[in-house]
Amino acid sequence: MSWLELKIPPPLVALSMGVGGWWLSLWTPVLQAAPQARTVLALGLVAAGLAIELSGVWAFRRARTTVNPLRPERASALVDGGIYRWTRNPMYVGMALLLTAWAVHLGAPAALLAVAGFVAWIQRFQIRPEERHLRLRFGADYEAYCARVRRWV
């Protein structure tokens, strides 16, 4: 399955999982209670997800390094400031929060399987290959960064 590594853009994976979550919501029980509370929670998750994701993009732009997740070998700087002091993958954390917001909005607990699917896919086919490239490119500096900062949160 290594032929799938770094092939599908993470936003497309997230979108696909979101469609899968919606499909699950059609075929599984949906929570009818507290629609306003679900909306408020979903909007809060959207705000948090976008803030975290965009802060990751912003940090890469400031460092003048690639934000293209399919070409990690083009990384020109090891970004370890800003949001990257708390998570090594804020863009993926943000996408996972957006998917969680979608599941909450749908009111479908089964739609949370889409979040788990996203995390599993990104972990296997995106993050691990990215980390291999970053270890080769930045060596001991990247290892020290990994020792300080968790992969997700």
Whole-number count of domains: 1
Secondary structure: number of strands:
0
Q: Look at the helices and sheets and give the structural class.
A: mainly alpha
Shape by Cα distribution: globular
SS strand fraction: under 5%
Report the end-to-end length measured between terminal Cα atoms.
27 Å
Helix content: 55-70%
What is the ordering of alpha helices and beta strands? HHHH
Taking all Cα atoms into account, the compactness measure Rg is 17 Å
**Oligomerization state of this entry?**
single chain
- Major β-sheet annotation: none
Average pLDDT number: 97
Low-pLDDT stretches are none
What does this structure look like?
By secondary structure, this protein is an all-alpha fold. The protein has one domain. It has 4 helices and no strands. Helix 2 runs antiparallel to helix 3. The two termini are 27 Å apart.
